Structure formats: structure tokens, C-alpha cells
Amino acid sequence: MKKLGSASGDVPADPSADPSAELLGEAAGVFGLLASPARLHIVWALSHGESDVTGLAERVGGALPAVSQHLAKLKLAGLVRSRREGRRVVYLVDDPEAAELVRWLVARMGDRLGAEAPQGLVRDLGA
């Protein structure tokens, strides 16, 4: 999976031109990966600062093995990366544009819910 902010040559020079099938597939892959509330929460949390798996598990309310698996998928996709600090592994955002997208989306949905938007609207549409 390519990073969202990478120059791939797939983006048409004309902003009104349709993106390539490959580019749409990559974007759908990122959205599919972020379709999990736990992974979305992990990226959101890491967009606010780095953390180890124990801290993330406490923050997102998940079991340690499940959070580790989510981190492995996010790392494989290039959305997060890790570094060692002694015996501790610290995770951080590796794709700032994807993290910004997550932060924007969460803020936008919070605004909509704050304005008393119908609950579960997207879910009710079969998304």
C-alpha cells in the first residue's frame, strides 16, 4: 500500500480527471484498513503522540494481543512505524497525511453528532 502523501504519478494533472483504477484501489485499501474502529482509534491516538502497545491497549480498551495485531497491519500498510527504546517498542505515525485524514474525519463526525445528526446514518446506509 502506498502512503497517501506519496507522489505516485497516478494522480492526474487535471484535478477534474478521474483517478486511475490503481489509485482508487490503494485508497480503498487504506479506507478498508481504517474501517475497524480499533485501528481508527489507534491511528487517532498515535496522531496525538507516540505510545507503546500497553499504553495503546489501555487507551483504546483492547486486549494486548488484539492491539498488537492491529499495529502489525497498520505497520505493514505504512501507516505506523515502530522503534526500540531498550526493551520497549514505541509506535508512531509513519503517514502524517493519513493521520490528518483520521483526525479530520473524527472531528467532522463529532461536529455532526454534536449538531444532533441522525445516529448511525452511515451504518444505516449499508456502509
Based on the model shown, name its key terms:
127 residues; mainly alpha; three-stranded antiparallel sheet; 6 helices; 3 strands; globular
Written account of the structure:
- The longest helix has 19 residues.
- A hairpin with a 2-residue loop joins strand 2 and strand 3.
- 53% of the residues lie in helices and 11% in strands.
- The chain has a three-stranded antiparallel sheet with strand order 1-3-2.
- It starts with 20 loop residues before the first helix and ends with a helix.
- The protein is mainly alpha-helical.
- Helix 2 crosses helix 4, helix 2 crosses helix 5 and helix 3 packs across helix 4.
Please, what is the average pLDDT?
85
Kindly state the number of beta strands. 3
Radius of gyration: 16 Å
Instruction: Please outline the major beta sheet.
Output: 3 strands, antiparallel
Number of helices: 6
**Biggest sheet: strand arrangement:** 1-3-2
First-residue to last-residue Cα separation: 22 Å
Helix content: 40-55%
Strand content: 5-15%
SSE arrangement:
Layout: H1 21-33, H2 37-46, E1 51-52, H3 53-60, H4 64-76, E2 80-85, E3 88-93, H5 96-114, H6 121-124
Antiparallel strand pairs: 1-3, 2-3
Short description:
The protein is 53% helix and 11% strand. The chain has 6 helices and 3 strands.
